[in-house]
Each structure stands twice: as structure tokens, then as C-alpha cells.
Design a protein that fits this description.
Length: 222
């Protein structure tokens, strides 16, 4: 949802600005409570399956992390930009947003009875190098979505490489002469997928999205 707020500008003239508002805090939980009180995979899943992180769907990542919410935001943007079109009153009967005609790229995400199958489809989508079939109305989202998919792909590979190195050490019984590998940052997939990865590409948007106000400075984040 959003809220319109009237504020005075530097010249003393009132202007209306739109601010996004995050709601449903009554459904939120402290992460430390989730670690100790909700240890089953099913208790870590929140949301609608087509928009849920694949690691939560297949149970490979049992604890709900912040990046899982970022992954869900990516899926929301992806489905919106590939499954829907926007028509003006001149182009359609009443105009507005509506489902595209023809075969939708991710339709099968919505009719999978098994979480594991849905998770597999989602994981494969990150390794897919094919271009995105975007609705013309969302063409300006292309670079943003591409950058997000690429960041997540790099993060997945980094995690796989880390897990393979740990497995190799265990296979050798810990006798490897290499220094112990630093602990992998699972919260950000090795630094590849965090809030800055989501928001920084916005600065390079083109078309009608160019000039979107970003109230975030990654250089100041901790």
C-alpha cells in the first residue's frame, strides 16, 4: 500500500509525495525467536508458494533469512513484468493492468502440487541464460531484473563451491594443508545478494523509471 503526504518544499509550496508503507507487522516475528521456537521447515515458510524462496520450499535452507525476502521481491517483480501488461484507455476498453495473452513464462510455478518441484523450477531459472520475455509496458525493468538474477546466480555458485570445499576437507579427514576456509556468509550468499544488490541497479534505470528517488547509500551500510 502507499500513503500520500503533503509537505512544503524549499519554496514554501505544498507538494504531494507518495511513500510506500510496510504493513502486516502483526504477522512478523523476531528472527531469534524463529531460531529457538520454530525449528521445523514448515514453520519457516511464509507467503504464497510461487513467490517463496526456493531454499525454503525444498528445505535445503531451513532457517528463514533476510535474503529470502529479497528473493521473494525478485519473483514478484519477475511475474509482474512477464505475465501482465498495462493498457491505456485508448488502447483497451477501460485500460489498466491485465494478464497477457498467450503462454506465460512462469505459469507452471502456479500449478505445482509439490514444493520440491517448484523449488527445482525456480533454481533452474537462475541458471537459465535466456533473455527475459517482458511485457512491453515493463521493458524498463529489464536491466534491473537481469542484474538481480545474475547476482543470485553468482551467489548460488559461491555457496556450492564453498560446500564442495568443505566436503573435500571432510573426505580427506581434515588432513588438507590448506588453511581453513572462512565461514560462508549465508545471509548474503557470500556478499552477492543483499539489499544493495536489490536497490543499486535502480540508479541505472532508463525510460520512465529514470530518476527514481533512492533513499539508500550502500557505502553507509554495515
Amino acid at each position: 500500500m502507499y500513503r500520500i503526504i503533503r509537505q512544503k518544499n524549499r519554496k514554501g509550496v505544498f507538494e504531494e509525495k507518495i511513500y510506500g508503507v510496510l504493513t502486516d507487522f502483526d504477522l512478523a516475528s523476531w528472527r531469534d525467536d524463529l531460531k529457538k521456537d520454530f525449528t521445523q521447515t514448515s514453520q519457516q515458510r511464509t507467503g504464497t508458494p510461487p513467490y517463496m524462496a526456493y531454499g525454503l520450499l525444498d528445505g535445503s535452507e531451513p532457517l528463514h533469512l533476510y535474503r529470502h525476502d529479497l528473493e521473494s521481491l525478485f519473483y514478484i517483480m519477475l511475474i509482474l513484468a512477464t505475465h501482465y501488461e498495462i493498457k491505456t484507455p485508448e488502447e483497451g476498453d477501460k485500460g489498466g493492468i491485465r494478464l497477457r495473452d498467450g503462454e506465460l513464462p512462469y505459469r507452471r510455478w502456479f500449478n505445482q502440487p509439490l514444493y520440491a518441484d517448484l523449488a527445482s523450477f525456480k533454481r533452474d531459472s537462475f541458471s537459465n541464460s535466456q533473455d527475459l520475455d517482458l511485457s512491453p509496458a515493463f521493458e524498463d525493468f529489464r536491466d534491473w531484473l537481469w542484474d538481480l538474477r545474475l547476482s543470485f546466480r553468482h551467489g548460488i555458485r559461491a555457496k556450492e563451491n564453498y560446500e564442495e570445499s568443505i566436503a573435500e576437507r571432510r573426505r580427506k579427514g581434515g588432513r588438507s594443508k590448506k588453511k581453513a576456509a572462512p565461514k560462508f556468509d549465508d545471509e548474503t550468499l557470500g556478499g552477492y545478494f543483499d539489499y544493495s544488490a536489490l536497490i543499486d541497479p535502480v540508479r541505472r534505470l532508463k525510460g520512465e523509471l529514470k530518476g527514481l528517488i533512492i533513499r539508500f547509500d550502500s557505502s553507509l551500510s554495515v
